[in-house]
Amino acid sequence: MSETSGDSAPSGAATAGAEGTEIAGLSYEEAREQLVLTVQRLESGGLSLEESIALWERGEALADQCEAKLEGARRKLEQARARREDKAATEDASA
């Protein structure tokens, strides 16, 4: 496996599918950290157009993963609040 920059840039639909699967398995924290690193690489410059586009697309997928994880957390909080309110209402009605 080469460690030189540019030799490992993702390309092709097969790689995009594999990356999508990889990204979908990341936690919020992992996706956010990878997104930060991706943005830093883009901002540092010196990349070919193809590398920049691939990184941009990866960044978009990572941002989508972060948003999905945050939305899932919001949903869980709303459900917990609703259960707590239902429980409190049931207890008040019983008293």
Q: How would you explain this protein's 3D organization?
A:
With 95 residues, the chain is an all-alpha fold. It has one domain. Helices cover 80% and strands 0% of the residues. The protein has helices at 12-24, 28-44, 49-94. Helix 1 runs parallel beside helix 3 (49-94) and helix 2 (28-44) packs antiparallel against helix 3. It is rod-shaped, with a radius of gyration of 21 Å. The model is unreliable at 1-14 (pLDDT under 50).
Give the mean pLDDT. Answer: 84
**Overall radius of gyration:** 21 Å
Shape: rod-shaped
Number of domains: 1
Q: How much strand content do the residues show?
A: under 5%
**How far apart lie the N and C ends?**
69 Å
Assembly state (oligomeric): single chain
Residue stretches low in confidence (pLDDT < 50, at least 5 long) are: 1-14
Total beta-strand segments: 0
What class do helices, strands and sheet pairing give?
A: mainly alpha
Biggest sheet details: none
Order of helices and strands: HHH
